[in-house]
Amino acid sequence: MGFEPTDAVRDILTRIDAFVDEELIPLEPRLLNEGFVALEPELEEKRQIVKERGLWAPWLSKDHGGMGLSLMDFAYISEALGRTPIGHYAFHSQAPDVGNMELLHMAGSDAQKERWLEPLARGEIRSCFAMTEPMHAGSNPVWMSTTARREGDDYVIDGRKWFTTAADGSAFTIVMAVTDPDAETHGRASQIIVPMDTPGVEIVRNISVMGHPGGGWASHSEVAFDGVRVPVDHRLGPEGSGFLLAQKRLGPGRIHHAMRWMGICKRAFDLMCRRAATREISPGKPLGSKQIVQAWIAESRAEIDAARLSVLSCAEQIDRHGAMGAKNEISLIKFFAAGVLQRVVDRALQVHGALGMTDDTPLAFWYREERAARLYDGPDEVHKISVAKRILRKYGSE
User: Fold this and answer.
1) What is the pLDDT of residue 2?
2) Which residues of 100-124 are buried (b: 16+ CB within 10 A; e: fewer)?
3) Do 250 and 209 reside in the same domain of the chain?
4) What is the pTM of this model?
5) Residue 116 belongs to some domain of the structure
6) Is residue 158 within 8 Å of residue 147, measured between CB atoms?
7) Are 217 and 255 in a shared domain?
8) Which of 78, 194, 249, 280 is the most exposed, having the fewest neighbouring CB atoms within 10 Å of its CB?
9) How many structural domains are present in the chain?
10) Predicted pLDDT of residue 46
11) Which domain holds residue 19?
């Protein structure tokens, strides 16, 4: 378990690192100051170059136009792409499309794959996933009010979702809705594909996150479903399988996120060290000569290394035993890596002083956007409780 990439993956990483440095990082000032929508046409050109170079969707099976890498191999790729806020998008490895493609590949019918998966895999359309609701605690995912009522060969969906990432401009959403309120807790909900142009679907607003509502893929929307009617054949998998599918989607997705966080940490650490080495606080006296800054650098290095190895170990467990065989590891990396991310970005911002508060570097962007890492996919506290309970059972605790 040396957690070293193969020679083939090393070659891919070299090519990706060069592309990120030469083609994507120079676009960051426009992204940070003008927003994603303004940058989208240029990004589409970069995505076409990625396709031409054979680096499109590294995680996706070759049957659907991807590179067919294992989860472990893609972990390294995700880290490399995470160094810039637009890395995953440029290489068609962005959430929530990755998870939706995995769901469609895993549970979609032939007709669903042809209509939705194929154009999504080619990057011709975008998608979103509607689960969280404003009126219920996101820490309790089985508690939801959105319903899908069966009427003949249709479902009629009513409810409201929020923090539906990338709904702005998406072709379709996958909605978690209660289809049988009398079923056991984890069998009440189903996942249903809903085209975003269906009558009754309304994007109420792009939610302002710490002062930034965003736009296009880089946004989080509140979405209303008012008498939305879709055919029953839009359901993914059997009725009542919504939570089971969500769990299967969650494990690999956690690796994608956590290694993206490690890429952010890598870039933030590099920025912090460069700033500490070159910024003088008095003539001939660099910021890095201060012991407190040296301590931040040392602590960050130790924490990044520990988190990174934990995520790679989890990826290996999932590749070997599946997500259900790595429950503890998946929860552990969620809260540990998210905490490391927050601390490293905060230290890097502090070292940059007033500059860190501006959008002249990506640090402020990550500070406001990635604070949510400790909330989405389950709050850190829920994962800590879950891990502790499973550990204590081995000691006879009920």
Assistant:
1) 63
2) bbbbbeebbeeebbebbbeebbebe
3) no
4) 0.94
5) no
6) yes
7) no
8) 280
9) 3
10) 98
11) 7-100
